[in-house]
Amino acid sequence: MAASSSRVMLGPLVAAIDQGTSSTRFLVFNAKTAELLSHHQVEINQSFPKEGWVEEDPKEILQSVYECMERTCEKLTQLNVDISNIKAIGVTNQRETTLVWDKETGEPLYNAIVWLDLRTQSTVERLINKTPGRNKNHLKHKTGLPISTYFSAVKLRWLMDNVDEVAEAVLTHRAMFGTVDSWLIWCLTGGKSGGVHCTDVTNASRTMLFNIHTLDWDPELCKYFDIPMEILPKVRSSSEIYGLMVSPHCLCVNGLCLQCLGDQSAALVGQMCFQEGQTACLLKVVLIYLFNCYLLQPVMSEHGLLTTVAYKLGRDKPACYALEGSVAIAGAVVRWLKDNLGIIQTSTELEKLAASVGTSYGCYFVPAFSGLYAPYWEPSARGIICGLTQFTNKSHLAFAALEAVCFQTREILDAMNQDSGIPLTQLQVDGGMTSNRLLMQLQADILCIPVVKPSMPETTALGAAMAAGAAEGVSVWSLRPEDLSEVTSEKFEPQINPEESEFRYARWKKAVQRAMNWETTEPISNGNGETSIFSSVPLGFYILGSMLMLIGAKYIAGQCPL
Question: Which positions fall inside the Carbohydrate kinase FGGY C-terminal domain (predicted)?
Answer without folding.
Answer: 297-471
